[in-house]
Amino acid sequence: MSNEKRYHILKWLKTPEEYFGPQCHLTDACQFAGGVCVGSFAEKTGLAQSVISGYLVKMHKAGLLESKRIGQHTYYRRNEANIRLFKEMIQDEL
After folding, report:
1. Which residues pair with 37 in a beta bridge?
2. What is the pLDDT of residues 29-67, one digit of tens each?
3. 2 in helix, strand or coil?
């Protein structure tokens, strides 16, 4: 969370329909509502797709995001259960 872009990614994913256009390869049949592809993040931030991918992978490994690969595209969404636990831990510890 020390990186402003990663903070914004989590914020944007809270209400992705507000910040991103339709995700063309993500259909209802995929059952990954709220997912946003890496390219959409790169476009919104103006950063290289490789940089955004690195951020997303770190957040995924930390348990803050879930991911799903659909064809050539990887989609990410918030892991609400883990975010809730993280917030509780911060409140308890600080």
Report:
1. 75
2. 677 888 899 999 999 999 999 999 999 999 999 999 999
3. coil
